């Protein structure tokens, strides 16, 4: 009871403590896949795939070889997202 009384009479208000050793939540493959699937359900899959592939190329991505044809790039992107076992077949 003393700490509560002390806080009420002294005007002390505790602030939130930031724990710097907390791990940051990195979105997993499944969450990214689900987000892209939901986005492509609203917009056309070709539009979504084109935006993702263009951004991937602009940022210097080189592990996945996307073809220049939009429909083939879309197919490769969604096959990569659905790749459960991270096989080299879809890269």
Strand and helix map with partners:
Elements: H1 2-10, H2 29-42, H3 45-58, H4 70-81
Helix pairs in contact: 2-3, 3-4
InterPro entries: YdaT-like_sf (IPR037042)
Protein name: Regulator
Structure description:
By secondary structure, the protein is mostly helical. The protein has one domain (27-90). The protein has helices spanning 2-10, 29-42, 45-58, 70-81. The longest helix has 14 residues, at 29-42. The chain starts with a helix and ends in a 10-residue tail after the last helix. The mean pLDDT is 79.
Features:
about 90 residues, mainly alpha, about 55% helix, elongated, Regulator, YdaT-like_sf
What is this entry, summarized?
Helix content is 54%, strand content 0%. The model has no long low-confidence stretch (mean pLDDT 79). The protein is mostly helical.
* Mean of residue pLDDT values: 79
**Can you count the helices?**
4
Helicity range: 40-55%
Spatial separation of the terminal alpha carbons: 63 Å
Number of domains: 1
Radius of gyration: 23 Å
Number of strands: 0
Given as residue ranges, the uncertain stretches (5+ residues, pLDDT < 50) are none
Q: Topology as H/E string?
A: HHHH
Q: Rough shape?
A: elongated
User: What fraction of residues sit in β-strands?
Assistant: under 5%
Structural class by sheet pairing and helices? mainly alpha
Largest sheet: none
Protein name: Regulator
Organism: Escherichia coli
């Amino acid at each position: 009871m003393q700490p509560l009384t002390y806080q009420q009479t002294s005007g002390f208000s505790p602030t939130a403590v930031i724990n710097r050793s907390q791990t940051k939540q990195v979105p997993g493959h499944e969450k990214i896949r689900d987000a892209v699937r939901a986005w492509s359900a609203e917009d056309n899959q070709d539009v979504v795939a084109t935006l993702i592939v263009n951004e991937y190329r602009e940022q210097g991505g080189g592990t996945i070889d996307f073809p220049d044809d939009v429909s083939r790039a879309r197919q490769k992107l969604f096959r990569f997202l659905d790749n459960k076992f991270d096989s080299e077949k879809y890269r």
